[in-house]
Structure formats: C-alpha cells, structure tokens
Amino acid sequence: MKRQTKAKLSSVQIIALGFFIMIGLGTALLMLPAASHAPGGASLGDALFTATSASCVTGLVQQDTGTYWTVFGQTVIILLIQVGGLGFMSIATLFLLLLRKRLGLRQREVVVDSVSYDRLGGFVPFIRLVFMGTLLAEGLGAVLLSIRFVPQLGWGRGIYYGVWHSISAFCNAGFDLMGPVSGAYSSFTAYAGDPLVSLTVCGLILFGGTGFLVWEDLVRNKLRWRRYRLQTKVVLTMNLALTAGGGLLFFLLERNNLGSGRPIGEQILSAIFDAVTPRTAGFNSTDTGALTSGSILLTIIFMFTGGSPGSTAGGVKTTTVFVILLHALSGVRRARSSNAFGRSIGDDALKKATAVLYTNLLLALAGAVAICAIQPMELTQVLFETFSAIGTAGMTMGITRDLLPVSRLIIVFLMYCGRVGSISFAVALLEKKAVPPVTLPREDITIG
C-alpha cells in the first residue's frame, strides 16, 4: 500500500525540480553580503534574476557581473553556469562514478533524459566523453584567452578571466567580467577586431552548442561522413549554413552602418561573431542597440533557432528547424516522404518539431504582450528580450535594467522554460498516469 500511494516523479519532473532547487540555492548564495558590493547584499530580485539567468545559461543581467558582484559572487555564478550547462544530473553522475557507485536503472533514465541521450547502453562511456570533451575544450579556451588577458591584466587576474570566460562561452552562457576593463555591460566590444579573442569565443560557443551525441559520433567515426548518423549530418550542415550564411548576411546588412569606416577584416570578424553568438551565447562585439532593423530581425531568428539537441545551447534547436523546413519543402514538391542524406524523416519527428516550435513561439509572444501591457516599451525591444529569454540567448537591446519587477518575473519564467524545455515544463506540470488511448472520429479540414 505504501508503495502504491508513494508519489513517483517522472524524469522530466525531476529535471525541472532540480533546476528549480539550483536556482533557489543560487539566489540564497547571491543574496549574501559577501557576494556583491551592494550595501547589505543584493536584493532578492537581482539575486533571483541572476541565478536564473546563470543556471539556465542565458546571460541576461540586471547588474554588471564584473563590477557589481565580488569574486565570491562571480564564483557562484560561474558554478551555476557550469552545472546548468552540462546538467545537474550529469554532474551528480560524475561524482557517483568517481566514488565507484553503481547507477540504477532509474538514475540512468533521468540522466539520459537530461542530456538527450537516446539509449541506456553505453551510457557510462558517453558521460566520460562529455566530461573529457568539456575539460579539453574549456582548458584550451582558457589558455588561448589567457594569452590575451595576462599581458593586459597580470598573471592572476588574466588567468582568472581566461578560465571564467572560457566556461561561460562553452556553456553558451554569455556572462562576462569585462565591466572593469572596458566599461559596464560592454561585453567583448573592445575586442571586436581581435581575432584571438573573437575566434576563440566563437569556437567555444559552436563546440558547446554542437551536442554531445554529435561528439560521440565524430569520435567513433572520425572523418567518415557516410558513417555519421543523420542527426550528426543535419547538425553539421545547419551549423555551417547558419555560421557562413549568417555571417554573410550580417556583413551585408551592417556594412554601411556599424561597419562604416572600419577595416574589412574587422567587419568580417564582427559579422562572424554576430552570426555565432545569437545562437544562445549572449556575448556581443558590436552595439546590439545600434543594429539595423534587418540585423535585429536576423538576430531574433538566430536566437529562436539556438543550438543543437543535447548540448549546452538553448533555442528550439537546429534539428527542429531543419525538420520543419524539410517537410515544408516536401509538401511544396508533393513528395511522398521527407528525405535528407539518403534517409526519410517520419511524421513523428514533424509532430515533435512543430510542438516545440509553436510552444516556444507562443510563450515568447505571450511574454511580449504581457510586458507591453505592464509598462510602455517599444515593441521591437520587448520582442528581442522575450525571444532572447525563451532561447536562453542572453542578448538585449538595453531594456533589461528598465523592466519592472513583474516584467522581470516574466523574463525569469521564460528563461526557466527555455532551459528546462517548454514542452518538458508543461509535461512536468501536467504529467499523469497513462490512460488507454482513445481515437475520436476523423474529419478533414481545409488547410492553406
């Protein structure tokens, strides 16, 4: 009887609850007087907003990270970013493996869902690959960034900045400490023409946002394209298209605006950075508020798209966009099936992709309408903010600090849904025991 009455949380509910607890713990730590330079400590609103943004690897901030938070507060933030980026269940699993503890079937199911792994077999080697790849990428990024920061800031502070920003970039978080160096909320605008910093940050963002399943496939099959899984081919193709195509579009859109009078090399570098960072990273090397209307729209599209499944990135994911575009193209061509790379994609994938896309779109639009109803703000800026939050992109046109407390809570909710997954969040709240399937009478309606 006790076993029957005992409530059992699903893996999705455990993940959602885990992020909620992590945000609460981070909020409590950031409110400590030692965490900030504010007299008496940070307010509940600032601490909650920052903890949510860090845990959900978003990057939106109410206070400049480098000037407002102390080293202790910055350490709390970067730990939240690291755990939020890899997933708290993955971190817990690592400790269990280090302690040589066996993982039960239930524990494996939860961790598999948290990293979007597709099978229970080979799970332990996969987790090892994730952490070894993370350590290698963040370590290399820290070394490269330290080469630039050490001469400017000294050994101690330069290495600290290198490690901190490497973790933030790999986890697609978008937090930075550049306030004391180049001004509050400046991000990497002072390094717009620096290839070492810009390309290192872009590389970390792309590698972290590629997806752990793709890592595994690349390690197993090396450079043998034909042996790659369909998901790997889709992810690599979309990454190349979005980076190269997006870089070209940003270059053309800004050549007479922010690019005017700048060397061509710096313009190209900024265009590449502008194409990579909106996909949930949140850094910027140019003034986001000064972008042309076309660049703003393109940035929103990229923020909404995000990275790839099972990665540190957010958004609706590149595979979701690919599946929907492929099915649309198949419909126009009146093809019997949607085919890509010698494989067909079923209707189940389309249903999931459509649900993810429209749920995120509805949340972002509803959030924008709510904020506009609460306080008078320009619609473009509000839409940019809500799409940035639901995509955990962390970019802003400068209105984050002007939001009223209720509007901030809306952004907090969107960031949480964006990281946990809007579909997963709904399932976590509404999930019930399975019921016998019932099929209602079918009736066609006119489409288009």
Descriptive overview:
It is a single chain. The chain has 448 residues and is mainly alpha-helical. It is 64% helix and 1% strand. It is built from 20 helices and 2 strands. It has a two-stranded antiparallel sheet. A hairpin with a 2-residue loop joins strand 1 (338-340) and strand 2. The chain is globular and about 65 Å long.
Topology:
Elements: H1 2-5, H2 11-30, H3 44-55, H4 65-68, H5 71-86, H6 88-98, H7 105-114, H8 123-153, H9 155-170, H10 179-182, H11 195-210, H12 212-221, H13 230-254, H14 264-276, H15 293-305, H16 318-333, E1 338-340, E2 343-345, H17 347-374, H18 379-390, H19 405-420, H20 422-430
List descriptors:
1% strand, 448 residues, 20 helices, mainly alpha, two-stranded antiparallel sheet
Quick overview of this protein structure:
Helix content is 64%, strand content 1%. The protein is an all-alpha fold.
**Spatial arrangement of strands, main beta sheet:** 1-2
What's the total helix number? 20
| Class based on secondary structure composition and strand pairing | mainly alpha
Number of DSSP-assigned strands: 2
How many distinct folded domains?
1
Inertia-based shape: globular
Low-confidence stretches: 1-6
Beta percentage is: under 5%
Measured between the Cα atoms of the first and last residue, the distance is 54 Å
Radius of gyration: 22 Å
Order of helices and strands: HHHHHHHHHHHHHHHHEEHHHH
Helical fraction: 55-70%
Largest sheet: 2 strands, antiparallel
| Average pLDDT score | 86
